[in-house]
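Why do we care about 3D structure at all? Because function follows from shape, and shape follows, mostly, from sequence. That is the central idea of this module. The next example makes it concrete: a single protein chain, its amino acid sequence, and then its structure expressed as tokens.
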Amino acid sequence: MLEVTPFGEGWILEHEGRELPAAVPGCVHTDLLAAGVIPDPLLGRNETEVAWVGRRAWRYATGLGVVPGHERTDLVFEGLDTAAEITLDGRLLGRTRNMHRSYRLDVTGLEGRLAVRFASAYTEAEAVRDRLGERPAAYPEPYPYLRKMACSFGWDWGPTLVTAGIWRPVRLEHWSTARISRVRPLVTVQQGAGVVELHVEVGRTDAAARLAVEARAGGQTVRAGLDGSAGVVRLRVPDVRLWWPRGYGEQPLYDVELTLLNEEAPLDVWRRRVGFRTVELDRRPDPHGTGFTLVVNGERLFARGVNWIPDDAFPSRVTRERYRERLGQAAAAGVDLVRVWGGGIYESEDFYDACDELGLLVWQDFPFACAAYPEEQPLRGEVEAEARENVVRLMPHPSLALWNGNNENLWGFRDWNWERRLAGESWGEGYYLGLLPRVVAELDPTRPYTAGSPWSGSWDHHPNDPAHGTHHSWEVWNREDYAVYRAEVPRFVAEFGWQAPPAYATLRRALPGEDLAPDSPGMLHHQKADDGNGKLERGLARHFATPVRDFARWHYLTQVNQARAVAAGIEHWRAHWPVCAGTVVWQLNDCWPVTSWAAIDGDGREKPLYHELRRLYADRLLTLQVRDGELVLAAVNQSADAWSGSVTLRRMSVDGEVLGGASMALDAGPRAVTDLAVPRELRPDGPKEFLVADADVLRALYFPAPDREIPYPWPEFDVEVAPGSVTVTARTLVRDLLLQADRLDPAARADRGLVTLLPGERVTIGVTGGRTPDPSAARRALYCMEPDRTESDA
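And the structure:
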């Protein structure tokens, strides 16, 4: 029987004549940090102090001993980052050039000093660039020339920390006669039965051995002989329970086990969990353009999505528990789709296991982002090898719904002046429109493939045409106000977002001792976007009077603006279902403490945007929209049940006076949107008025003017504190009230974000972690809209 021995203990990292203890999996930066050689690169401006690490070659070493009793021993590296030579007592065992794939080396009967020498990723990438010629990219670093996580070289939200190391587990496999080398499971549903078709490949030491495989799933068992080194075994599981995305049904998972036999003796076992469901992508043309609608088990979905980046600048530090926590936060916010973005990695099994269990659909990018990628060898061979390995590795997961060829590269070729600069050189089109769809069609025909994001489906349309396929909306944030979201209805919005700083306690930890200001040295260092602070300021100026030069107020207003911006987009686009079939917010998470588009900051704290997503992505949503000059109430019902009842409308003044009201019948069918015209007499007249719509426990607000024009009263409210809660009772209009619980205690978390209270209303905010504050401390941690104040007033 095949025996597996973990091989992560006893490694050392050589550094200037010293042998430092090395954690495997890990990387050079984490080992140097643990040894006290470098400061924490994610704090202060330490990132610049450790830049030298990425420019050096590094050597890991350990002892390799003999394990008798087997015909073959393989040394298996699940991930090496990136360009490495593996030697045993100086004898070359193998070379690697790809972070995104595994490597298997025959070490049968060998012993001695095992070493893995990593060249600098800069050195390797720059050598390829010098040989093939420079390709255009969004950033000056040489990330397109090496199959390595692109954002190691920095991004507009991430630090430049060019890693090296044994970043995924290592093991020794001892075996005789034969072993299972690959199982490719095709999981489908046919006439109510689940079908598992296992395509098996084996490695042999004995070509004459009579081999068979026995497969089990859902109480069914099937045995088949193997002809040579490959075979197929097919199981049919009757009356199977379907796997559904969260919000549409349950997520039953079935154990599948395949045993390799020599006569009756077991040689190796392959085990996975699968879920039975169908997934399609409806891209048919219609009167609005070309659709892009995910269909699961025949049910058409409005995808409530988030973009996912690596959750740590050093991905080897992300544990199974951390994946579960972060993805659990996504599910709790109503998310049902997570896009694994192309500048990162193919995530670990722990990520996809959590998505399977939580009912989160996964849109998986192949790792290409924001650059022209050469197609010459050896890069082309590496791309095909990694694609083949990872497509098969991830196939068992029912959460995996879509393969995507790249992020923004087809768009970049057309709009970012690449075509002229390339002058006919290769740039990746052959991957996205040739190699990758061929690999997916051959290996995983159960799932759809799209060539890129954004992508209109063919060169017949602009790659980022909102009427065709997927669309990235970045004119908003980069140049336009978020009100511009309402100017069009894309078929599927795969990226859009707005920045805000992280939580206050996160900033205090990341920038110890700094006198915080929007333009203080540490704040500027932890802002990686081009003119990021300028865009934040211009975004504030469109809605608010120039804020008092008070960091706490700036911090609050930028977080409010982020939540409002994303809300403007999602409310508008959800209200246009089924023309628009999904939104994927940029972005869910951060990999370090940084001002960014994330809803959850680098310390795992939820920004106000996160709590706003819970409202925006709930099954039912009320939103007030202006269409063709008329005010409309849209009732968005994504639940399986009809939504019937009444909605109450109140036209109010900011002073709390009710100026008019009406009740209207509400009737929205399952998975449908109903529009109700707001009576003209209830439309707010001028900046002093607003409209409130209430149905069940949901509320929509419409303020016709930007905050800078609204004559808010000075907010008056009472505060009561109890263990685990803070209750606020409004005596005036209190708009966008926010309890920043981490200002009370870094360990404290509030269970909600921004809330608007009318006079006489109250809200109880749950608080977990930390100590129970006194009312005066709680009041100091509460922020809301205030009347405009000049600097002299402050």
